[in-house]
């Protein structure tokens, strides 16, 4: 089956990473749709529309229905004539009797029924479906492919996003497709009338979540997770955060750790009082401060001062200066780090 038979939405954003195998014939009577729940649900709706069967005779079954009921539904013609759609959900969780019954049916599907099977993962029915119909595997996109999905999906909601805005949306609401789609709907409403939506518009609509991503960066620095901190920093660059803002957040966190280190003997209470933080935050900061020796934190200030000069002089790109400072601050060999 070719993608343009299921409408514009399928041929665009939802086709990223999809695979189809099977008979590739017009008028298939059997489909297996597997993969991410959100994409499976959408493909199911698109299939129903493309089939054009009688909606009044449509029936949906699942693992709770015995084999005999499944076969009866498939072998009973629509009272109003035309094709009848039978959807069986979650076929990857069917028992042996149900699976055997459907495998037997798939050897000779009824001409008056269209069978659509759905699953999250692998199913023994896939091989049988390939002989008589089409198997569609819908994988959730990740990384840059997810940004492309977001941009295509944004067009479905009537808005235009660039890559930076796509990354900003991911950083704001996460990588779950259903959440991203809901966020795009909200974004379309909040930015109605704009010719295009930029990263700054995304952060304006989702300010609290965007701020949390900067905390994720500074916390990774505090936890001495260099790879995580570098990935977070580069993601912030891509989504359009100003290097000077990120520099300020990093410097402020290092200063907080210095205060926490000096108050460490008094425990969480002393750190909380010294910095005016809630107890949970003071406890985390104290743990982070103890992962650095005092002289390392002082050296971190020197590294930041050097980065500040580089950024303001223009001799070094701000992103490069920040990355160098990050490596200098976090990157002590594991064997030389203090025990927590």
SSE layout and pairing:
Elements: H1 8-11, E1 18-22, E2 30-35, H2 37-51, E3 59-61, H3 67-75, E4 84-88, H4 96-106, E5 113-119, H5 125-132, E6 134-138, H6 143-156, H7 163-173, H8 177-190, H9 199-205, H10 207-222, H11 226-238, H12 243-262, H13 267-275, H14 279-290, H15 294-313, H16 318-330
Parallel strand pairs: 2-5, 2-6, 3-4, 4-5
Antiparallel strand pairs: 1-6
Helix pairs in contact: 3-4, 4-5, 6-7, 7-9, 7-10, 9-10, 10-11, 10-12, 11-16, 12-13, 12-14, 12-15, 13-14, 15-16
Structure overview:
- This protein has 340 residues and is an alpha/beta fold.
- Helices cover 58% and strands 9% of the residues.
- The protein has three domains: 3-138, 3-Layer(aba) Sandwich (Rossmann fold), CATH 3.40.50.300; 143-205, Helicase, Ruva Protein, domain 3 (Orthogonal Bundle); 209-336, Up-down Bundle (Zinc Finger, Delta Prime, domain 3).
- The chain has a six-stranded mixed beta sheet with strand order 1-6-2-5-4-3, with helices on both faces.
- Helix 9 (199-205) crosses helix 10 (207-222), helix 10 crosses helix 12 (243-262) and helix 13 (267-275) crosses helix 14 (279-290).
- The termini are far apart.
């Amino acid at each position: 089956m070719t993608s343009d038979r299921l409408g514009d939405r399928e041929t665009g954003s939802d086709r990223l990473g999809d695979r189809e195998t099977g008979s590739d014939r017009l008028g298939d009577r059997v489909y297996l749709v597997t993969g991410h729940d959100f994409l499976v649900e959408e493909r199911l709706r698109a299939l129903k529309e493309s089939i054009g069967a009688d909606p009044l005779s449509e029936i949906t079954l699942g693992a709770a229905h015995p084999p005999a009921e499944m076969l009866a539904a498939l072998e009973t013609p629509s009272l109003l004539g035309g094709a009848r759609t039978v959807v069986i959900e979650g076929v990857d969780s069917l028992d042996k009797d149900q699976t055997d019954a459907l495998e037997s049916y798939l050897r000779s599907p009824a001409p008056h029924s269209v069978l659509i099977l759905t699953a999250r993962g692998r199913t023994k029915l896939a091989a049988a479906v390939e002989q008589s119909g089409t198997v569609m595997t819908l994988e959730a996109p990740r990384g840059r492919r997810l940004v492309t999905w977001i941009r295509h999906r944004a067009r479905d909601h009537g808005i235009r996003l660039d890559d930076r805005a796509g990354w900003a949306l991911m950083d704001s609401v996460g990588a779950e497709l259903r959440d991203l789609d809901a966020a795009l709907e909200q974004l379309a409403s909040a930015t109605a009338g704009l010719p295009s939506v930029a990263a700054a518009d995304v952060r304006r609509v989702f300010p609290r979540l965007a701020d949390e991503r900067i905390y994720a960066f500074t916390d990774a620095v505090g936890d001495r997770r260099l790879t995580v901190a570098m990935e977070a920093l580069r993601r912030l660059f891509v989504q359009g955060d100003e290097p000077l803002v990120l520099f300020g957040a990093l410097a402020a966190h290092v200063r907080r750790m210095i205060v926490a280190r000096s108050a460490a003997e008094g425990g969480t209470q002393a750190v909380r009082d010294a910095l005016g933080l809630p107890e949970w935050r003071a406890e985390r900061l104290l743990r982070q401060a103890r992962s650095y020796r005092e002289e390392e934190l002082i050296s971190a200030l020197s590294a930041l001062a050097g980065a500040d000069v580089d950024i303001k002089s223009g001799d070094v790109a701000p992103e490069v200066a920040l990355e160098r400072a990050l490596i200098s601050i976090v990157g002590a060999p594991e064997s030389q780090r203090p025990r927590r």
